[in-house]
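Quick one:
INPUT:
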């Protein structure tokens, strides 16, 4: 049976600016632990990709926060994610000494060596480490093989592939999972996003290919279109396989706490129209922001602008490309007005 990581306190932080109180974090950790969730990700060390400025407690995941959770729930398997460019050697030593059970290193294709160096250092000091390949839809099949083998050689204990853009469908998940399972000798994990409401279907597809680790979050709370909801995954597993691995009542109680105390009462993690369109187009959240900014700057409809960029390779779109398409849309609109 695959291992489950709940990522509410980390990926969910993109919804509320990582502004979880310590009391809320303890409540969530306690509920997940009582429900039998295997691993609990508690935040980023020293910030998501762009750092900690203006963000709350789980964006920094400092020593005091980790120590408080370890004292509160000493048997919980706590997980911390990090971006290599935000980390110093002493951060890794602190994570080791504080008893963090798993460190997940974000691996970007353009920053591969930096990520591999961090994995080597984690391995050297004895940290259980996952190499998390983000934006997997920007990798070719050959690149997936070659780069994940490098992560294994660097000492990673797990290799994850993340559908960061929420673009994959089950057949694609199966294709990537099969490549990784046949290429690597270490366990493989999958992180789904729910832009096209494929979080559960894609996770099930990964499990059918023998993936060893999967992610979810309470209420699906997460970046962009959100994640697979932990309570939905638990209910599905019980529905299909009978014996309850997780205590569903405790999970639902904790999910309701997140809904009522963390999310706004009317805020549900149904993908917004932006998330649906950008997931379909395979556009990253960084690119989404550039498009939204350009639509305001050039006074063009953001949906038209996104569609206008559809012929470009999504991982190669530049600010100049966006400005060019925006100008063309404006010109076309002016011509239509004069017809």
């Amino acid at each position: 049976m695959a291992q489950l990581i709940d990522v509410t306190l980390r990926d969910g932080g993109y919804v509320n600016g990582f502004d979880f109180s310590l009391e809320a974090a303890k409540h969530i950790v306690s509920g997940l632990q009582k429900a039998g969730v295997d691993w609990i990700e508690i935040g980023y060390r020293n910030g998501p990709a762009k750092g900690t400025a203006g963000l709350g407690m789980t964006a920094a995941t400092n020593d005091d926060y980790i120590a408080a959770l370890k004292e509160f729930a000493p048997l919980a398997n706590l997980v911390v994610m990090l971006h290599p460019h935000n980390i110093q050697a002493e951060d890794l030593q602190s994570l080791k000494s504080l008893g963090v059970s798993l460190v997940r290193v974000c691996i970007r294709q353009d920053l591969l060596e930096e990520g591999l160096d961090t994995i080597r250092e984690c391995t050297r000091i004895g940290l259980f480490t996952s190499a998390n390949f983000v934006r997997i839809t920007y990798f070719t099949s050959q690149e997936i093989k070659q780069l994940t083998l490098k992560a294994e050689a660097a000492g990673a204990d797990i290799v994850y592939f993340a559908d960061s853009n929420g673009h994959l469908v089950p057949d694609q998940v199966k294709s990537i999972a099969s490549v990784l399972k046949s290429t690597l000798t270490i366990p493989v994990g999958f992180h789904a996003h729910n832009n096209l409401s494929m979080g559960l279907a894609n996770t099930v597809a990964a499990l059918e290919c023998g993936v060893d680790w999967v992610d979810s979050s309470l209420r699906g709370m997460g970046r962009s279109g959100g994640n697979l909801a932990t309570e939905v995954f638990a209910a599905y597993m019980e529905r299909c396989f009978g014996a309850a691995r997780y205590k569903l009542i405790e999970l639902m109680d904790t999910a309701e706490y997140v809904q009522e105390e963390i999310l706004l009462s009317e805020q549900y993690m149904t993908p917004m129209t932006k998330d649906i369109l950008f997931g379909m187009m395979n556009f990253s959240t960084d690119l989404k922001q550039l498009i939204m900014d350009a639509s305001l700057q050039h006074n063009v409809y953001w949906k038209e602008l996104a569609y206008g960029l559809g012929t470009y390779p999504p991982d190669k779109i530049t600010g100049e490309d966006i400005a060019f398409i925006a100008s063309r849309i404006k010109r076309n609109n002016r011509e239509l007005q004069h017809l």
